[in-house]
Each structure stands twice: as structure tokens, then as C-alpha cells.
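Bench notes, afternoon.
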Amino acid sequence: MRKVHATAVLVTLVLVGSCSGKKPSSCRNPEYAEIKKKQAISQLEKGDLYGALEAALASETCNPRDPETQYWLGRIYWARKQPPKALDHLDKALSLRKDYPEANLALGMVYLELKRWDEAVAQFELVTRHELFRQPEAAYNNLGWAYLMKGDREKAVQAFQTVLKINPNYCPASCNLGEVEAQKGLSAAAIKEYRRALEFCPDYGRARLLLGIELQKQKDVAGACREFQAAVRVWPNTDEAQRAQEYMGLLNCPAAPR
């Protein structure tokens, strides 16, 4: 508890320094803001959201007009389940750097979480038009998911198929195509797509769960139980694992082996 309290105090001190309008003496070092930004990224990758926020706020205090710092603050607040603050900082990042596809992608993800489908589509489309973006699969896959959530299956399928043209091994797109087929009531086609995803990503828990659901519809209880057990094993402590356990209870499946 003392460690948590100390972290909260440090964050508060950074905020106070920022609000006072006076930069701390540490900002006199021209490398300080960059060092703190790198610390924030490292802490975020480790899952230390408090440490990441503390470092990012320190960086912002010294250099509030750095678009990368605003971007990472947006990412950190999104990870902390604070969408309004995430939107604020991602908008700032894009106001400071118009050509910033990573920020567009992150902004679209926040809009997805908020179920603001049209705004998510707009951001993902911007990313797909950026020729030098290094993760086009993620952009098109997210675009497809946004269209699917809007109810536009045709455009969703087009986006997912584009992903697989770019990278045939991109498992989430195959899994998402399976969900489209399942929505249409085409269980056999859905199973084919889920198995395609698992061919390249055997530890993809969502595909395991959804494959199990379709196998259960096909009266293949033993196969469904195997997939539910696998979902629990490969993605423990997730919503997918919880749903898999619920299905296991309904089907009287054996407990997932450790």
C-alpha cells in the first residue's frame, strides 16, 4: 500500500508542477523529456500504468508540444480505461503532427471501445491510405471490425479479405471472417475460417472459443469441449476464458488440463 501511495503522490507532484506554469529545474536538461518519454514507453510495455503515467506527465511538463508524448499519454490513458483523457491527448498529438497514422489508429481503437463506429471508420480509413504505415494489416482489420459493428457485413468482409491479401497468416482477420459467417448462420464456413486462424496461431484464444461454439452447434460435444479447454489454457484470466468455462459447465466438459 505504501508503494501505491508513493506513486500517487509523485503523479500529483508532476501535475502540480505542470499547472503552476513553471517548469521544474530538471527540464533544463535538454535530454530529460526524451528520457522520461522512453521510460513511459518501457513502463507501459511492462504493464506498469502508474509508472508510465508518471514518466509521461514529467515529459509533458518539460515539452508539452511534443506529439509523441501526447500520443503515449493517449495510449496510457486508454490502457487505464480513461477514454475521455485518451481522446484528448490523441487529438493533441494529431493537432501537433497532422501526418501521424499511429495516433489515428489509436484514436480509432478508442472510438471502437466507445462504440462510436462512424468515427472509428474515419480514423482507420485515414491509416489505410497512408502508404508508409508499417502495420496495414492492423488498420484494415480494425476497419473491418468497425464496419461489422455498424452492420455493414459487405464492407467488413472486403476489409478482412484485404488483410489476408497483405498477410495470409494474419489470424485475427481469419477469425473475424469466421464471425461474419457465423452471423449469417453458415456454421461450416465459420468453422473453416476459425481453423484457418488456428493453423497459424494455435494459441489464439478467441478463435478457440468461437470454434468451440460452432462445434457445439454441430453436436460435436467432444470437439467443442477440447476447444473450450484450450481457450482457458491459452488465454487464462480473460473474458474469452470465462465464456469458455461457462460453456464447459453447460456441456459438462472435463476441467481444462493445466
